[in-house]
């Protein structure tokens, strides 16, 4: 029996065994051996295939999916629209000759369409996706109890950039998405136009019943931004030392020779880890300044060692008392850095930890104000002024979120207030918070027939500052009691003892 080796060229047809002509090429007979085939050679067949004009562009097999393929212009148009959106291309790309020629080459059945058609279909797709998202927003969590976080709009505003214009844009958007009666709070930074925007939105939303619990919890300032303002204000007190350190680092990292000499000295003489590199800070990001101070202190001995051989270092290396000041301030800023990392977490909801972080910062500032270092006291004064300016009312809205955390509840908030204000003022603050929570509960009870399960997340990583500040919390819980009047669902929750701060919690068993 002969073996037919198919080659995609009709020029090689030399048999008539009923196979399609396109498959007929080279016949191997039973008597042929590999040396015989090699002797006769097949290189001429390969060369012929490379230059043959009769060679077809492709093969068609009976079991191929290509025979079942049905061209759908609508599906192709959707893919082109996705290509435009994901790549940020101009709508006019569909009218370019190169694009149309490419699509015609890929499929002759392609029907060209204009940029106006592109715009029309994209708007239709946007409306469909928007309606899907509206349905999705009917529940704040999905079946796996993960909170939803969606970017609903990103828009460049035309001048004027004032609070009223921004409020108009936000209000129009809320009405369009039918969210004007479902707003709890809005988080903004400290820009003046944001204050005007908040005032304007309140006037519009409160009469429509669009704010939960009235306007008590509506305006929330960005906690990470406030920490940045507080620390930046304090760093101005040591601006001279910071300028020295920046100039010293620039002098080293801008020269490959000096940089190589610096790290070589650090490794061979002081046995330091040279994977840790010198880095300049960004003036608008205080945490980069904190890291710069840390690396400078780490390589302090290297700076001092190279001072004798580099005259250019003399004017930039801080004096000994300045190094001591840098060390104290770096240790002081450590808590701010840890709290910022706590606020900036993305793998779990953080609303329940803001009160704890803000309270730790507040107590840290008060203790530093009474500390042994005069320069630190001077540094803390403007920081406390910034804190009081932006966070004087943090007790209310951050306390409510903390109380709904099963590990904190009222006991934790009461403990924190007592450390700052004493028992009398702490009791007044707690009553204010509980009154606000009960008012919110009554509002929700009127709107919803049933309550939703409480989502409890694992505790965030503990910080060194947190361990120092809460040593006597367990004793406080065991010695203090609070009485609750009535037995609503909220009060039943508040009556239960809080869980241990570091306990493991199974949400399905809670």
UniProtKB/TrEMBL annotation:
Q: Does the keyword Nucleus apply?
A: yes
Query: Which molecular-function annotations from GO does this UniProt entry contain?
Result: DNA binding; zinc ion binding
Question: Where is the chain membrane-spanning?
Answer: none
Q: Does the keyword Magnesium apply?
A: no
Q: Where in the cell is it found?
A: Nucleus
**InterPro entries, per database record:** hAT-like_transposase_RNase-H, RNaseH-like_sf, ZnF_BED_domain_contain
Q: What is its main location?
A: nucleus
List each copy of the hAT-like transposase RNase-H fold domain by range: 345-444
> Known Pfam families for this protein?
hAT-like_RNase-H (PF14372)
The signal peptide annotation in the UniProt record is none
An annotated GO cellular component: nucleus
What keywords sit in the KW lines? DNA-binding, Metal-binding, Nucleus, Zinc, Zinc-finger
Record-given protein name: hAT-like transposase RNase-H fold domain-containing protein
Q: What is the lineage of its organism?
A: Eukaryota, Viridiplantae, Streptophyta, Embryophyta, Tracheophyta
């Amino acid at each position: 029996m002969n073996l037919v080796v198919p080659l995609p060229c009709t020029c090689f047809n030399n048999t008539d065994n009923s196979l399609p002509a396109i498959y007929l090429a080279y016949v191997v007979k039973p008597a042929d051996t590999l040396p015989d085939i090699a002797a006769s050679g097949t290189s001429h067949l390969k060369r012929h295939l490379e230059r043959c004009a009769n060679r077809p562009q492709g093969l068609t097999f009976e079991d191929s999916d290509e025979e079942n393929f049905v061209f759908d212009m609508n599906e192709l148009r959707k893919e082109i629209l996705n290509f435009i959106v994901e790549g940020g291309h101009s709508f006019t790309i569909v009218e370019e000759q190169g694009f149309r020629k490419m699509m015609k080459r890929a499929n002759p059945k392609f029907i060209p369409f204009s940029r106006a058609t592109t715009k029309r279909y994209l708007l239709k797709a946007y409306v469909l996706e928007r309606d899907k998202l509206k349905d999705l927003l009917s529940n704040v969590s999905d079946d796996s109890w993960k909170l939803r976080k969606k970017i609903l709009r990103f828009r460049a505003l035309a001048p004027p950039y004032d609070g009223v214009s921004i409020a108009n844009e936000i209000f129009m958007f809320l009405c369009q998405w039918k969210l004007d009666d479902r707003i709890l709070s809005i988080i903004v930074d400290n820009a003046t136009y944001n204050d005007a925007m908040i005032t304007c939105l309140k006037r519009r939303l409160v009469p429509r019943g669009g704010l939960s619990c009235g306007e008590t919890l509506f305006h929330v300032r960005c906690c990470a931004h406030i920490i940045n303002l507080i620390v930046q204000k304090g760093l101005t007190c040591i601006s001279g030392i910071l300028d020295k350190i920046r100039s010293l680092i620039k002098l080293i990292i801008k020269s490959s020779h000096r940089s190589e000499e610096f790290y070589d000295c650090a490794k061979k003489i002081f046995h330091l880890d040279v994977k840790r590199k010198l880095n300049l800070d960004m003036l608008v990001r205080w945490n980069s300044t904190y890291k710069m101070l840390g690396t400078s202190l780490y390589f302090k001995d290297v700076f001092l060692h190279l001072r004798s051989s580099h005259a250019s270092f003399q004017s930039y290396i801080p004096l000994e008392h300045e190094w001591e000041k840098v060390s104290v301030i770096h240790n002081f800023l450590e808590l701010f850095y840890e709290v910022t990392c706590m606020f900036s977490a993305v793998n779990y909801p953080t609303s329940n930890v803001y009160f704890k972080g803000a309270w730790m910062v507040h107590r840290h500032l008060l203790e530093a104000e009474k500390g042994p270092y005069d320069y630190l006291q001077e540094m803390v004064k403007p920081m406390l002024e910034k804190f009081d300016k932006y966070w004087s009312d943090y007790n209310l809205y951050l306390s409510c979120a903390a109380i709904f955390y099963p590990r904190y509840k009222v006991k934790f908030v009461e403990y924190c207030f007592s450390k700052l204000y004493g028992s009398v003022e702490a009791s007044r603050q707690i009553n204010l918070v509980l009154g606000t929570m009960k008012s919110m509960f009554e509002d929700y009870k009127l709107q919803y027939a049933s309550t939703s399960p409480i989502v409890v997340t694992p505790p965030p990583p503990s910080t060194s500052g947190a361990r120092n500040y809460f040593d006597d919390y367990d004793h406080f819980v065991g010695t203090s009691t609070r009485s609750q009047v009535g037995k609503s669902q909220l009060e039943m929750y508040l009556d239960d003892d809080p869980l241990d701060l570091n306990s493991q919690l199974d949400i399905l068993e809670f």
